[in-house]
Amino acid sequence: MIKCWGEIEMTVANCLTLIRILLLPFFLFFFFYDFSNHYLIAAIIFTLSALTDLFDGYIARKFDQITSLGKILDPLADKLTFIIVFTALAIDGFIPFILIVFILVRELVVLCGSMYMYYRSKDIISPSNTGKGATFLLYITAVSYIWDLSFLQPAAFIAIGLALLSGVRYCIEGYNKYFVGHNIKK
């Protein structure tokens, strides 16, 4: 673990999360810049991004690299990835517009709520298995549309259901923890 910029802890897991964020502009460039195989290159970049998400969590848990920065950066990277990738898919007509509306609203509500709770109490709500399952299936959904794997596209419906459940869970747990429990710093 390397300390840099004061108290920020840069671990291998945090570096992988940063790589995931840094891959987003490259995904967008190759997704929208029209040349031979541009969707294929964008799909490869997105797949690499998904793998960094898988490995950063595994490394953080396996090698005790869970940090305050990682608890903020990893969900932020997830939100940015889904908002950007699914918006790109909707713009180019790969996915139905209603899917992107749902994903955008859900991701923005959870992101804004998490930011507010962290700002007020320096605490976050831990991801649930439902949320992790939704994240995994959202990656599968995006990959299925980018790689044109139609047999996987029904995963979108399960992902939406799990994302909705986890979003409701975040709202309820956040309300109970930060408003009912009066844990908010004044």
From TrEMBL:
InterPro entries: CDP-alcohol_PTase-I, CDP-OH_P_trans, CDP-OH_PTrfase_TM_dom, CDP_ALCOHOL_P_TRANSF_CS, Phosphatidylglycerol_P_synth. The keyword Membrane applies. It is a multi-pass membrane protein. It comes from the Bacteria. Its EC number is 2.7.8.5. It is found in: Membrane. Signal peptide: none annotated. One of its GO terms (cellular component) is membrane. The keyword Lipid metabolism applies. Keywords: Lipid biosynthesis, Lipid metabolism, Membrane, Phospholipid biosynthesis, Phospholipid metabolism, Transferase, Transmembrane, Transmembrane helix. The chain crosses the membrane at residues 12-33, 39-60, 131-147, 153-172. GO terms for molecular function: CDP-diacylglycerol-glycerol-3-phosphate 3-phosphatidyltransferase activity. One of its GO terms (biological process) is phosphatidylglycerol biosynthetic process. This protein catalyzes the committed step to the synthesis of the acidic phospholipids. NCBIfam families: pgsA. Belongs to the CDP-alcohol phosphatidyltransferase class-I family. This is CDP-diacylglycerol--glycerol-3-phosphate 3-phosphatidyltransferase. It comes from Halobacteroides halobius (strain ATCC 35273 / DSM 5150 / MD-1).
